[in-house]
Amino acid sequence: MADINDIANIQDYAKRMADIMKNDTFSIGIGEIAETTGLTQSQIRYWEQKGFIKSIKTNKNQNRKYSYHTLSIIRLIKSYLDSGFTLKTAAEKANAHKKMGKMLRQIFTDRFVGVEEIDDLPCINLGFFDKEETQTLYVVIHDDSTEIKVVPVK
After folding, report:
1. Do residues 142 and 123 make contact, with C-beta atoms less than 8 angstroms apart?
2. How many CB atoms are closer than 10 A to CB 96?
3. Distance between CA 135 and CA 64 in Å, rounded?
4. How far apart are CA 7 and CA 72, in angstroms?
5. Global pTM value
6. 105: pLDDT strictly greater than 60
7. Distance between CA 113 and CA 107 in Å, rounded?
8. 139: which strand partners?
9. Which of 60, 58, 69, 62 is CA-nearest to residue 24?
10. How does residue 24 score in pLDDT terms, banded at 50, 70 and 90?
11. Alpha carbon distance 27, 25 (integer Å)
12. Among residues 138, 113, 102, which one has the least CA distance to residue 21?
């Protein structure tokens, strides 16, 4: 079993996850979406008809397919519905989260350089902090928190 504190394993995982995020081609069928979320396929098609979600374009005779990100939006909408919001409000709230998720994904894919260690703690290297490239920005991972650290380039 891989040691999650081993820096090489962390780096390997981080690289693989970055590649997955950059090349998101994962899709799931409407039946699996319905089964996973507890919604009916007709509800999902209705949400798509209303423009709250979008399916991936496929061949004419294939069932609808959805991206992982759309699955997340569907789950968010359902969560808001379960909390008592209307469908329109739930979709609006989920869309706001979608924008935030897109920004976070962009930060990670644009800035992620690798995983290193500082003081025997795993750190995410987010690249240069300044235009002169004299400092590097890190997120240091502690057991119960994170810390932002700017380190001079050696």
Report:
1. no
2. 11
3. 48
4. 30
5. 0.60
6. yes
7. 11
8. 124, 148
9. 69
10. low
11. 6
12. 102
